[in-house]
């Protein structure tokens, strides 16, 4: 579901129009149409969609991404890193929405924001799951296959970049408990109260397992998309036109992204009791195609899939807390998103292939 509207739409429309007018050469104001939020999106960031009419009559579709304030799913503030990352990725083989401007002053919209040219296309929805209904479910199996493989190609393009040669080394910052996977897991343990997952027995058991069975990380670290999934890709037909949402970006083992890509799809099918769409390549074919595209031999994938399931479980606990805080959910409601994520994590922990 999208982040709920946190501002007055008309006041927001006027503020964006004034901001664009001040930055548009030539005479005459920029007119901005109604502001709306996209349907079927996630809960990690506030996106505003609108159309701007320039003084010469040209109409430009826009997407405005606002830095999270009240609805902060992740701890810390990495907004400046996201802005810098987006600018660096422009012009690389990684397709991102063209960046038109950035406003660091929170006085305009209540928080800093990015203005991007909206990339037209379709995004597989989270709610309702694309496995149950929507444009992907309506495609024939061979075209669904093309959509999925296009997502793998987008992920591979990210991982083929050398993050340090590309100027992305600033993302390789150790957390409070040091660098590497051990440090990240220690950070995760300290942040369980922030997410509201400190009393989730399944999550704490998974974290203990992860900390006790650290794998050796082979190969050079790569740029991590973070929220790697087909639901964060704008498709033109069956081909990726833009990769969205870099809030969870970092530097690390590429298996972390690939595992997240696989797990989020598993959550949206098996995790919610929906059959997986026919035509979508399975785990083995996905991994083989990824290896072919990147030349990287995937290792310790089961470990990173458990880590993905753990991370998603605690993130859904945080989303539940935010929905309760805003009054969207009644207090103490057993929210299906978190319940399903916890159940799937439990099943992965108990499986014979779990690390």
What is this entry, summarized?
The chain is an alpha+beta fold and 355 residues long.
How do the strands and helices of this protein lay out in sequence?
Blueprint: H1 9-22, E1 31-32, E2 46-53, E3 59-66, H2 79-89, E4 99-103, E5 113-117, H3 135-138, H4 141-160, H5 180-195, H6 201-212, E6 222-224, E7 233-236, E8 239-243, E9 250-252, H7 254-267, H8 283-294, H9 301-325, H10 336-350
Antiparallel strand pairs: 1-2, 2-3, 3-5, 4-5, 6-9, 7-8
Helix pairs in contact: 4-8, 5-6, 6-9, 7-9, 9-10
Would you give an account of this structure?
With 355 residues, the chain is of the alpha+beta class. It has two domains: 9-117, 2-Layer Sandwich (Phosphorylase Kinase, domain 1); 135-350, Aminoglycoside 3'-phosphotransferase, Chain: A, domain 2 (Alpha-Beta Complex). Helices cover 40% and strands 12% of the residues. The chain contains ten helices and nine strands. It has helices spanning 9-22, 79-89, 135-138, 141-160, 180-195, 201-212, 254-267, 283-294, 301-325, 336-350; strands spanning 31-32, 46-53, 59-66, 99-103, 113-117, 222-224, 233-236, 239-243, 250-252. The strands form three sheets. The protein has a five-stranded antiparallel sheet, with helices on both faces. It has a two-stranded antiparallel ribbon with strand order 6-9. A two-stranded antiparallel sheet has the order 7-8. Helix 5 (180-195) runs antiparallel to helix 6 and helix 9 runs antiparallel to helix 10. The longest helix has 25 residues, at 301-325. It is globular and about 65 Å long. The two termini are 32 Å apart. The model has no long low-confidence stretch (mean pLDDT 91).
């Amino acid at each position: 579901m999208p982040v709920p509207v946190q501002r007055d739409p008309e006041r927001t429309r006027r503020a964006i129009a004034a901001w664009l007018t001040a930055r548009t050469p030539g005479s005459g104001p920029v007119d901005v149409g109604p502001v709306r939020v996209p349907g079927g999106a996630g809960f990690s960031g506030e996106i505003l969609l609108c159309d701007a009419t320039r003084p010469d009559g040209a109409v430009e579709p826009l997407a405005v991404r606002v830095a999270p304030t009240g609805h902060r799913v992740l701890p810390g503030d990495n907004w400046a890193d996201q802005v810098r990352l987006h600018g660096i990725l422009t012009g690389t083989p990684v397709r991102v929405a063209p960046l038109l401007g950035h406003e660091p002053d929170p006085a305009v919209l209540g928080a800093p924001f990015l203005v991007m040219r909206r990339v037209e296309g379709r995004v597989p929805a989270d709610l309702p799951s694309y496995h149950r209904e929507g444009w992907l479910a309506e495609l024939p199996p061979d075209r669904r296959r093309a959509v999925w493989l296009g997502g793998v190609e987008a992920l591979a393009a990210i991982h083929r970049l050398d993050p340090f040669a590309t100027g992305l080394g600033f993302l390789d910052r150790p957390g409070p408990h040091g660098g590497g996977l051990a440090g990240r897991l220690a950070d995760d343990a300290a942040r369980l109260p922030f997410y509201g997952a400190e009393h989730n027995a399944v999550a704490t058991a998974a974290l203990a397992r992860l900390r006790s069975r650290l794998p050796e990380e082979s190969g050079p670290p790569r740029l991590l998309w973070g929220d790697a999934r087909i639901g964060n890709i704008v498709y033109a037909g069956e081909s990726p036109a833009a990769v969205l949402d870099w809030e969870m970006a970092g530097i690390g083992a590429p298996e972390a992204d690939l595992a997240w890509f696989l797990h989020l799809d598993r959550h949206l099918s098996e995790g919610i009791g929906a059959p997986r769409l026919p035509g979508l390549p399975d785990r083995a074919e996905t991994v083989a195609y990824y290896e072919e595209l990147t030349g990287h031999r995937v290792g310790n994938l089961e470990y990173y899939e458990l880590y993905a399931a753990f991370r998603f479980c605690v993130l859904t606990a945080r989303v539940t807390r935010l929905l309760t805080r805003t009054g969207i959910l009644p207090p103490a409601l057993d929210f299906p998103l978190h319940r399903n994520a916890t159940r799937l994590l439990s099943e992965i922990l108990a499986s014979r292939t779990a690390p």
